[in-house]
């Protein structure tokens, strides 16, 4: 494959122009011009820039949020896209194509990288694919914001024999990985502001020096926000009244059993985006924190994934099956039975090989939701050690807590906006059910995923459900919006005219790739190499 070898080493001269899917405002009609990517000058890099050739790009639901909101998207900070368009795409695998003078001792033509999308420079966010034009293009430019940012360089080197799709999909996988590696505070914040609810103010002050102590009647609660709130033998009314007084990253310690049980209204959007935590399962603060110290899946435990038929849900399921820290029994639910069939096809053999019991459940299989819920409970009578919510529906969080075992983790992975309440049984919180949430990823999460990929411990290509060339990217984005494919769509940006196609259609449409696909028709780096050799 001499042509592919030249491509990998970036031996070809750079063109004078390149294609990019710029976005000029809200709505799909504002992606590109007349339904096509725009043609831009490929100028030499300025002294403070490098030019990256984009090799593969995964399409993401976050791209759809930008399309819907346009300049109003919070990460664009009001940028007028009509006059200063950006380029979507942050799940990016790229090769250095040209280097400005400032970086010639750091980067070399032909080196491969992936981009950490969450970029910070002088304390401000400049996310790739948002304020910094992203990877839905044949080429892109990066400057000191990405190359010498607040966390150093936001590019991670990729080994030469790693697949382009494999490495590009490390980015969404990093978001999954982060959700299992959160560094939640489990003890009171040092130097923070604490509120203690107690009928014995003297004893409380001795136990918590420097804390604000008020009577259980709440009549004299001082103004918040508080970093920590301690509530012995709580009631729904007290917890509901105090939850709004937690600061970002705040923790409420619920000690002992509820004095009165019932539903508590909690803003699950704040749990997800502002890292609020509610810790029960102990008689004192230390015990409650210890009971909630776990972050990853309970090894060889039982896990439940609710609404997990989409691309990110499949990643959670694959992780629970494939990695050593995974589960013994994995139960997956979704409204779409076909998506669950895809999960069984894609991961069934892996589960058997790993000794993991895999069950998939859809409401269509049952006479009622109550029957389905009974089946879910039957599969783990003592509750699930880990429950992941992958649909942005607040009432599902209520359901998830009810399915959870004592000291379980309920991972609200789906981004439920702030201001959306869920009703949670207080007794669920007091028995140590910890509700968590996270958004995005850190560079160390991306590095961890890339390491696993390159060691053969994780196959990110199993997430691929469709491929296409650059000109088909708008159709691909519409497919993401409409949930057309059960997994990730990967765009090969250096191939212009290849149509968008599901993986199951690849053998018929590109016969040269038929024998290169993996078990159950999975995408592989061998199929990718044959694709590039044919089309480049």
Written account of the structure:
The protein is α/β, with parallel strands linked by helices and 536 residues long. It folds into three domains: 207 residues, Medium-chain alcohol dehydrogenases, catalytic domain (Quinone Oxidoreductase, Chain A, domain 1, Alpha-Beta Complex); 98 residues, Rossmann fold (3-Layer(aba) Sandwich), CATH 3.40.50; 139 residues, 3-Layer(aba) Sandwich (Rossmann fold), CATH 3.40.50.720. It is built from 18 helices and 27 strands. Strands 4, 6, 7, 10, 11, 25, 26 and 27 form an eight-stranded mixed sheet that branches. Strands 20-19-18-21-22-24 form a six-stranded parallel sheet, sandwiched between helices. Helix 5 crosses helix 15 and helix 10 runs parallel beside helix 11. 49% of the residues are buried. The model has no long low-confidence stretch (mean pLDDT 94).
């Amino acid at each position: 494959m001499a042509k592919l070898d030249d491509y990998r080493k970036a031996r070809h001269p750079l063109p004078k122009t390149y294609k990019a899917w710029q976005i000029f405002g809200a709505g799909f009609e504002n992606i590109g011009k007349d339904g096509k990517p725009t043609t831009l000058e490929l100028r030499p890099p300025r002294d403070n820039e490098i030019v990256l050739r984009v090799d593969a790009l995964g399409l993401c639901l976050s791209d759809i949020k930008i399309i819907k909101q346009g300049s109003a998207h919070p990460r664009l900070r009001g940028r007028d896209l009509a006059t200063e368009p950006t380029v979507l795409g942050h799940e990016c695998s790229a090769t250095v194509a040209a280097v400005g003078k400032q970086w010639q001792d750091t980067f070399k033509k032909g080196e491969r990288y992936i981009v950490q999308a969450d970029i910070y420079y002088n304390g401000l966010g400049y996310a790739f694919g948002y304020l910094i034009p992203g990877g839905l293009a044949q080429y892109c430019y990066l400057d000191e914001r990405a190359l010498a940012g607040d966390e150093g360089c936001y590019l991670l080197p990729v080994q030469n024999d790693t697949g382009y799709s494999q490495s590009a999909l490390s980015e969404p996988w990093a978001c999954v990985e982060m959700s299992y590696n959160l560094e939640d505070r489990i003890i009171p914040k040092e130097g923070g502001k604490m509120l203690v609810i107690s009928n014995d103010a003297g004893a409380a002050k001795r136990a918590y020096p420097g804390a604000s102590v008020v009577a259980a009647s709440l009549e004299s609660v001082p103004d918040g926000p508080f970093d920590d709130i301690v509530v012995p033998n709580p009631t729904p009314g007290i917890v509901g009244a105090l939850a709004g007084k937690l600061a970002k990253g705040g923790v409420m310690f619920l000690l002992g059993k509820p004095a009165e049980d019932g539903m508590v209204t909690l803003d699950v959007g704040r749990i997800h985006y502002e890292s609020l935590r509610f810790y029960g399962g102990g008689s004192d603060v230390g015990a409650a924190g210890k009971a909630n110290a776990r972050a990853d899946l309970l090894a060889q435990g039982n896990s439940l994934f609710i609404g997990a038929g989409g691309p990110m849900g499949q990643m959670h399921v694959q992780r629970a099956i494939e990695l050593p820290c995974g589960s013994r029994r994995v139960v997956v639910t979704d409204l779409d039975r076909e998506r669950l069939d895809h999960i069984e096809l894609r991961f069934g053999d892996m589960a058997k090989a790993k000794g993991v019991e895999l069950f998939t459940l859809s409401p269509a299989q049952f006479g009622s939701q109550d029957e389905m819920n009974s089946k879910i409970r039957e599969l783990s009578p003592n509750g699930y050690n880990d429950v992941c919510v992958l649909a942005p529906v607040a009432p599902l969080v209520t359901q998830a807590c009810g399915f959870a075992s004592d000291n379980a983790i309920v991972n609200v992975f789906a981004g439920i906006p702030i201001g959306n309440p869920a009703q949670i049984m207080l007794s669920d919180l007091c028995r140590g059910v910890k509700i968590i949430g996270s958004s995005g990823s850190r560079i160390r999460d991306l590095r961890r995923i890339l390491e696993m990929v390159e060691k053969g411990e994780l196959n990110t290509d199993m997430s691929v459900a469709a491929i296409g060339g650059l000109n088909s990217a708008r159709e691909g984005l519409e497919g993401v919006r409409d949930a057309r494919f059960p997994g990730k769509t990967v765009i090969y940006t250096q191939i212009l005219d290849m149509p968008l196609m599901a993986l199951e259609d690849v053998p018929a449409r590109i016969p040269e790739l038929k024998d290169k696909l993996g078990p159950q028709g999975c995408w592989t780096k061998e199929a990718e190499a044959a694709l590039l050799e044919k089309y480049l």
